[in-house]
C-alpha cells in the first residue's frame, strides 16, 4: 500500500500521524471525511500528491533534510514491493468482499444518514413559521401543503390520468388523419372534374361549337 510505504519511509523523521494520497493538491482538512473500503472511487493512475502529517513539527524539518541523503527506496529486502503474479494474487485477495465487514460499513453509513436527516427535520421544525431578520417566513414541504404520499390510490389516479392523456392523443391523431383523408379526396375530385372539363372543351372544339366569348 502506498500509504504504508510512505509512513514507513518518513517514520525515521518522527512519528507519522497520517498519510493522505490524492490525485491533485487539495486544500482543507479531510478529518471529517471517512474513506470507504467498498464504495470508493477508482484510484487514479500516474502521478499523485501525498500529504504526510507528523505528530510534532520537528518531523517536518527532519523530512526536509532527507533530500541531502539521496533518494528514498520503497522496495527493500526487508519490505519488498510485490510485482508480477504475487501482486495479482494480492489484488485479487483484496477484491474479495467480506459480507460482515460490508454490512457493518453500510449500517454505519445509514446510521449517520438517519441522524443527519433527523437533525435537519428538527431544525426545519424549529424554523417553521419563524420570520428571519428581514421578516420573511420560510415554508417547507411540511407546511401548509406537504408532499403527497405515493400510496396505491395515488398510483391508480396517476395511471388513470396517463390513460386519459393517451386516449386524447389517439383521438387527436384520428382527427388529423381524417382531415388529411378528406382533403386528399377533395383534391382527387377537383382533379377528376378538371380532366372532365378538358375532355368536354376538346370535344366542343372538335365540333366547332366552342365559344369562349
UniProtKB/TrEMBL annotation:
GO terms for biological process: ribosomal small subunit assembly; rRNA processing. Keywords: Coiled coil. Belongs to the RRP7 family. GO terms for cellular component: CURI complex; UTP-C complex. It comes from the Eukaryota. Residues 180-207 form a coiled coil. InterPro entries: Nucleotide-bd_a/b_plait_sf, RRP7, RRP7_C, Rrp7A_RRM. Residues 95-213 form the Ribosomal RNA-processing protein 7 C-terminal domain. The keyword Cell division does not apply. This is Ribosomal RNA-processing protein 7 A. PANTHER family: RIBOSOMAL RNA PROCESSING PROTEIN 7-RELATED, RIBOSOMAL RNA-PROCESSING PROTEIN 7 HOMOLOG A-RELATED. The keyword Disulfide bond does not apply.
Amino acid at each position: 500500500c502506498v500509504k504504508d510505504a510512505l509512513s514507513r519511509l518518513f517514520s525515521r523523521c518522527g512519528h507519522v500521524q497520517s498519510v493522505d494520497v490524492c490525485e491533485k493538491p487539495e486544500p482543507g482538512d479531510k478529518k471529517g471525511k471517512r474513506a470507504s473500503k467498498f464504495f470508493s472511487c477508482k484510484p487514479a493512475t500516474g502521478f499523485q500528491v501525498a500529504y504526510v502529517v507528523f505528530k510534532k513539527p520537528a518531523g517536518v524539518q527532519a523530512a526536509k533534510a532527507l533530500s541531502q541523503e539521496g533518494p528514498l527506496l520503497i522496495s527493500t529486502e526487508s519490505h519488498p514491493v510485490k510485482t508480477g503474479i504475487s501482486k495479482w494474487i494480492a489484488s485479487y485477495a483484496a477484491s474479495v468482499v467480506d459480507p460482515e465487514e460490508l454490512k457493518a460499513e453500510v449500517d454505519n453509513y445509514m446510521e449517520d444518514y438517519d441522524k443527519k436527516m433527523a437533525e435537519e427535520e428538527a431544525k426545519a421544525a424549529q424554523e417553521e413559521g419563524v420570520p428571519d431578520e428581514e421578516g420573511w417566513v420560510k415554508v417547507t414541504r411540511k407546511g401548509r401543503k406537504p408532499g403527497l404520499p405515493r400510496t396505491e390510490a395515488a398510483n391508480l389516479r396517476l395511471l388513470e390520468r396517463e390513460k386519459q392523456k393517451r386516449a386524447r392523443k389517439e383521438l387527436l391523431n384520428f382527427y388529423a388523419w381524417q382531415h388529411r383523408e378528406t382533403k386528399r379526396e377533395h383534391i382527387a375530385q377537383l382533379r377528376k372534374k378538371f380532366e372532365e372539363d378538358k375532355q368536354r372543351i376538346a370535344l366542343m372544339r372538335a365540333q366547332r361549337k366552342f365559344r369562349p366569348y
